[in-house]
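Weekly modeling sync, notes
Attendees: S.R. (lead), two postdocs, one rotation student

Agenda item 3: backlog of single-chain predictions. S.R. asked that every request posted to the team notebook include the full sequence so nobody has to chase files. The rotation student volunteered to paste the first one in as an example of the format we agreed on. Action items at the bottom.

Example entry:
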Amino acid sequence: MDFDSLVTKKKIILVGKDLQDADIEVLTEVLEKSTVVQELNLMCNRISLADDKFTDALAKNRTLQVLSLYNNEVGVEGGKRLACAIRSNRALQQLFLEGNQIGDEGAKEFADALMVNKTLHVLILRGNDIGDDGARSLATAFLFNSTLRVVLLGENKIGNEGAAHLCDAVEYNHSIDQLMIDGNKMSAIIEKKIASILSNPSRKIPGAKQSLPKHVVETILKHKDAEIASRDKTIAEMHDKMTSEFDSLKGLLVEKEEEIKQKDSFVAEKEGQLQSKEELIAQKGNEIAELIAMKDKEISTKDAKIARRDAALTAKMTDIARRDMRLAAKDEEIAALKATLDSPLEVVAKFIARKDDEIASLKSTIESSAGDSSRNLSGSNRSSSNRSASTEASGSDGEDAEDDAPNENEDPVAAVAVVEEKITTTPTKKKVSSKSRKSGSARKSGSARKEKKAANSAEGSGVLKPCLKNGKKERKVTEQPVE
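Predicted structure, as returned to the notebook:
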């Protein structure tokens, strides 16, 4: 079922759809919001009206004129809810409720609704298990209702007593045109009497309305007295209940007042404690403020000191930067000086290596010449020559030793010049000494002297290499071995 399609229809027919209460929620919404629906046919379903949703919507609806719930499962409680809706409804004209077993209780609720309803014309209550009590209640309602035209009460459990009340009601009520009570347990005589009353044309003549029969009035009064007694009993029970509840509420109120007093005293005590705490908090706040002010002052002083220290540190860093610049300049000067020192020393080292090679070659030549001469000289001349050569060699060796002795305090460049001079003069000395080959011993002593001299010159011709240590120049002599 779609709400949008149903809300615009005047007639909604849902016969034999096996609908239940949960399935008619959309119909409830239609009754609440539709302004055009006039007929709702729900015959042969399983609707029980177990809640008030549908009946509340029916009570407020102002357009529905025909409602059919034939052969559903309304029952007693559903009948009561439906009767309550009829009491408030101002539009429904025809109600078909056949085969729903509302019983005498449901019939009594419908009787009460008919006492105030002024729009219902047709009421079908066939097959609802209504007995004499239900029939008597409906008969009483018929005496005060002037809008009903058709009432069907067949296939129920109405006996002679209930039928007699219905007969008296239709005799007095001239608006009911049809009252069918077939299929009940009453006498056929009463059924014929009711049919005769309804067929009498004089009952429709204006002013022909007669007073109520005495037994009807007595029955009504008796019924009303019973209702009043029942209501009085209910009122008394309610009064007793309300009195009991009032006494309990009064005791509860006393207890609550006592609790309120205790809570008030507790609150007052707590307020006093809170006030004391607030004063303590205020005092602590003042102390904290003073402490913060003092700390702020100390921080300001320390900040000033830090600023002064930062200024001094900045000045020192500036001085250090200047010193670093000066040291960088000095390092550049030292590197340049080192480059100037390395170049001549390399030249000197190459020169000394070349001279060492010449000395080694000269030494081998002298040794070969000395060997050839020693074989040609005589023994006597050899010994005398040896003595004289030894004397000369001793003197010359002493002089050469003194000349060749290196001076520790001498400048390295000057020492290199001296070594070069000695190296250049060595071949001449070698040649001069070779002329005095008078004896083998003289030649041998001359060779020894030359070897010593060459060694001394080699010692004096060490390679000077500059070294840097801790930013200062040091001189280191690397000796070149002489073979």
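Discussion: group reviewed the output briefly. Residues 214-376 form the longest helix (163 residues).
Action items: rotation student to repeat for the remaining queue; S.R. to check formatting next week.
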